[in-house]
Structures are given as C-alpha cells and as structure tokens.
Amino acid sequence: MKKKKKSISYGKWGQIFILPFFIIYFIFSLIPLADTVRYSFYEYYRSGIKEVGPNFVGMANYISLLKSDMMAYGKNTLILWLIGFIPQIVIALVLASWFTDARLKIHHKQFFKVVIYLPNLIMASAFALLFFTLFSTSGPVNSILMSLGWINSPIDFMGSVFGTRSLIGLMNFLMWFGNTTIMLMAAIMGISVEVFEACEIDGCNSLQRFFYITLPMIRPILAYTLITSIIGGLQMFDVPQILTNGQGNPDRTSMTLIMFLNNHLKSKNYGMAGALSVYLFIISAILCFIVYKMTNDNDPDGSKAAAKKAAREERRRRR
C-alpha cells in the first residue's frame, strides 16, 4: 500500500509569528485601557503625602468635569486644530494637484517632495522651542522688524490670544502639511490616466477636473486624512505645552484638553484623569463616525440613486 503523504500546514506558523504582537498589545495597551476606564469611577488622588482612595464614586468624576472648564478647553482645542488644519489641507491639495499634473512639466519633483516632507521629521518639541526663541520679545523676528523700521517697540506675540493661537496653528501646519501632501499625491497618482484624458476630450477645464474628478476619486484618502487629523488635534499637547510653558497663556486660551489631562496626572488625580480620557475617547469616536458617514460613498457608480429615482417615477406614474 502506498503511504499517504503528510500535508504540511503553514497556518500555525503565521499564528505563532503574530502571537508576540497580541501579547504585547494585551499587556501594554488593553490592560492599561481597562484600568483607565475602571479608575474613572473611583475617587483616587494624592493630597500632600496622603493618598486618598481608590473609593468608588460612580459618575461623580464625569459630572465634576462637566462643571469644570473642560468645555472651554475643548473649544480652545477645536480652534487651534482649525487654524492649523484648514491651510494644511488646502495647501496640500494644491501642491498634490500641481506635482501630479503632467501638463505642468515640473522638474526636480523628488527634490521638492523631500523639502516638503522635511518639517515632518522635526520633533514637535524642537519646533516649539525654535518658535519660542524666534518670536520672543527679544528674538530675531522682533529685531529684524525693528531694524527695518516697521515697528517702534517689540511685539509680544505670545502675550495676545491671536498671536499665540496663530503661532500654534502655524507650527501644526508646517509639521504636517508635507505628510498630507505626499499621501494626496499617492492618491491622485492612483487615478487612471484614461479618466483625465476623457475629461480633457470632453472640454473640462482645470477647476472642473479638480472638483468633479480628482476630489471624488480621492475621497477615501481625504477621509483618512481628516480622521487622523481629528485624532491628532484632540491629542494636541507638546506644541502649546512648550510654547506657553504649560500654562496655556494668555488667560488659558491656549490650554488644550490633553494639557488639562496632564495637569490631573501631575496632581496624581487618577480618577479625574481617567474620566477625561473616556470623554476624549467618546468625542473621538463620534467625530470619526460623522466624518466617515459624510465621506463614505455607498453608491460610486450612481446605480442606487438611479434605481431610487426610477422607483419614484414609477410610483408617480401609477398615481
């Protein structure tokens, strides 16, 4: 009798190779996440050398946060994110369209891509320290403006709400627009050249080509960019922390939600910090779901819309 050949299964090796990831994720991510949610229902803080708790208090931490300045700090975070994100996405779309347009015949594209992406490699703390030095009252910017005779006295950029928020928004824009540009360029380059050739034959101009072909076809990447930017905006910490020395000045108008969370962690108030973390998770989930619904196209070819229209016409005809 012929011996049956043993079948070799390679599936188990794949499971073995990915097992370390799940072990590390469980230990360093899942367990701390569960602890954060658990501590949010407890009174747990340090008062001097005395440690209070953990004592179960239910929803008291969540109610206390709603009565605090959390809403004001949430508004600050939204404003700072908008100041940085709006120019970021606009400039990134323009640059991506230019660099992928064969008709412009731009030379040395690789060099420009590297230059655009370089600010993304600089640490946010280094960026914030650089801007703090440049725009201080005795910094180079004020010195240049005074030597040119444009101002008579130094401008306190970080002493005004507009100046501080503008600097934070400018830094966030400079750090991230290169990354967004590269992603959008990859998305546009993934569009079939035949589509652009067909639109040129139909007589589309540059604006029609951009709004009716490019934007709809890169919608998934735009959704990804917006979602990651929202999450990053809610986690905004290092730039305003260093630029305002952790105070959120002037008048705490640059205090973000993560800076507020960091203050609770510094005071060892783990219950309030856990509750605020849960709030941030819920806000992130809601905003990302809204963005996904707004940008997700369930009818790319228009067949569903055409079917619904035909059904409405049929109902009208029967009436």
From TrEMBL:
UniProt keyword Transport present: yes
Keyword Transmembrane helix: yes
Basic and acidic residues: compositionally biased ranges: 310-319
Domain of life: Bacteria
One Pfam entry name: BPD_transp_1
Keywords annotated in UniProt: Cell membrane, Membrane, Transmembrane, Transmembrane helix, Transport
Membrane topology reported for the UniProt record: Multi-pass membrane protein
GO biological process: transmembrane transport
Transmembrane segments: 12-34, 78-99, 111-135, 173-196, 217-237, 270-292
Region Disordered, annotated ranges: 300-319
Signal peptide stretch: none
Database matches in InterPro entries: ABC_transporter_permease, MetI-like, MetI-like_sf
Domain ABC transmembrane type-1 residues, every copy: 74-291
Classification via PANTHER family: ABC TRANSPORTER PERMEASE PROTEIN, INNER MEMBRANE ABC TRANSPORTER PERMEASE PROTEIN YCJO
This protein's name: Binding-protein-dependent transport systems inner membrane component
